[in-house]
Design goal:
This protein is α/β, with parallel strands linked by helices. The protein has 14 helices and 13 strands. Helix content is 46%, strand content 17%.
């Protein structure tokens, strides 16, 4: 990220804090506080505060904050003998608990995560590997098969397999064992490539933390908030939902595939207070005629990733009881 882009990003953050806190001085103080941690350090702190609370569930399978912290530490310990801090690690998998622990473990080890759509072709995966310089990959079975056929195939581990314990027991500890600092690169996010080959955009831990924590502050996020969504975790919108749970010590219930009845049932079952979705999901919920009562109990519904049309926005109060917040 260039200096000019970074300056613009920080000014956006300051503007958000001025709007929500009412003063430039508060904005400056809180911006410094928001960015002084990393995602894995914040997750480790949350695990100490609320170890028994469910952190993430995917299609009903769940991990508490303590369990996720322990599993992420095992991934980090396994990676410590295979990658160096700053090395690129490709993650090509659908939403699962394995995805979450590999993502958090890679960050904890100081690696830079390269997110990949698991449906990418071999050529698309090859471009990401070559362009990012990925030295290792975590993947589901099918993208692993495509990766294995590349001329420069990185060693690939099954995202669903938890590494054996005992590699580096010290990494089981709290945030003091987290390798990266706020200024280190966390993600290499690739553009959609609509006008050429996808290009990698480096995002630091500080940028991730400032972005999601400022949004959480503006949305008055609390530890007891329960999020539900059916967005892919390899996209920033879906992944940011995991970040909220890891930071607040709350819970995110995720569906790996979107079906209107399943999303509504999950919201009802877990008494969800927040929904993350995109316009096509809101349209599908309306078209399916699902019972609106569980969604009207939400305190916050967020719409992102693509524009919300005025026509669709006009229909959503009948489903949500209000307009969604567009981010």
């Amino acid at each position: 990220m260039t200096g000019q882009q970074s300056t613009g990003y920080e000014e956006w953050s300051r503007a958000g804090w001025r709007a929500n806190l009412g003063g430039a001085a508060d904005a400056e103080n809180h911006l410094a506080w928001l960015g002084d941690q990393t995602i894995p350090a914040l997750a480790a702190a949350a695990a100490e505060r609320a170890p028994a609370r469910v952190a993430v569930s995917v299609d009903g399978a769940k991990l508490t904050h303590a369990e996720l912290g322990e599993q992420a530490a095992r991934v980090a310990g396994w990676l410590a003998g295979r990658v160096r801090p700053g090395d690129r690690v490709l993650l090509a998998a659908s939403s699962s608990l394995g995805f979450v622990r590999c993502y958090l473990g890679a960050l904890r080890a100081g690696a830079v995560v390269v997110l990949a759509n698991p449906a990418y072709t071999a050529a698309e995966l090859g471009h990401l590997v070559a362009d990012s310089g990925a030295v290792l990959a975590f993947a589901d079975a099918e993208p692993a098969r495509r990766l294995a056929g590349l001329a420069q195939a990185p060693p690939t581990a099954d995202v669903a397999v938890l590494p054996e314990a005992g590699v580096r027991p010290g990494l089981r500890g709290p945030a003091r064992d987290v390798v990266p600092g706020p200024q280190d690169t966390a993600l290499l996010a690739y553009t959609s490539g609509t006008t050429g080959k996808p290009k990698g955009v480096p995002l630091t831990h500080r940028q991730l933390a400032v972005s999601i924590r400022s949004a959480m502050a503006a949305w008055r996020w609390q530890e007891d908030d329960v999020l539900v969504h059916a967005l892919p975790l390899y996209h920033q919108h879906g992944l940011s939902g995991v970040h909220t749970a890891l930071i607040a010590g709350g819970t995110a219930h995720i569906l790996s595939r979107f079906r209107p009845p399943d999303l509504v049932q999950t919201a009802r079952q877990h008494r969800a207070s927040v929904l993350f979705a995109v316009p096509t999901i809101y349209q599908a919920l309306l078209d399916a005629g699902v019972p609106a009562a569980p969604l009207r109990d939400l305190r916050l519904a967020v719409c992102g990733s693509s524009p919300l049309s005025p026509a669709l926005a006009g229909r959503l109060p009948s489903l949500l009881g209000r307009l969604p917040l567009v981010r």
